[in-house]
Amino acid sequence: MVHKFWQLNRKSSEESSKYAHIKKDKEESLRANRDTERRIRLARSVPNLDFCTLKRNSQEEINFIYALKKECYKKYVEEWNEEIQKKLFEKYIKENGKHIKIITLKGEKIGFFDGKILEDNTFRIDNIFIIKEYQNKGIDEAISRELLFENKI
Description:
The protein is an alpha+beta fold.
């Protein structure tokens, strides 16, 4: 009796692995649909605005984030020590990398933000940085509105 039960479980796991590619395709399709819907909502406020997750190990994107943070923070730090700031930044990337989103306009990187869902099921935005030339154009408001929508706050 135990032997037959094991055979049934083995068969069902074999069958489910047979259809794993279908499940993966469906998940990718749903993700693509959500991305398209997000772009449409953002475009109502700012045409061609979008954001995407920081690519793992993308040195170009990490350098962009560091340069933008440096540009924004440097005027508020009395004595900017590049070595210390880079160590703090590495720690920031390590702890928050999976929550960082790159903001783009017409495919060009113009900023970034990071936010996450907390233990009490609330969403917190920790940083929003936008290149100076693109500030005061409604971009931060459009991003904030989209985050509120996506997280149903």
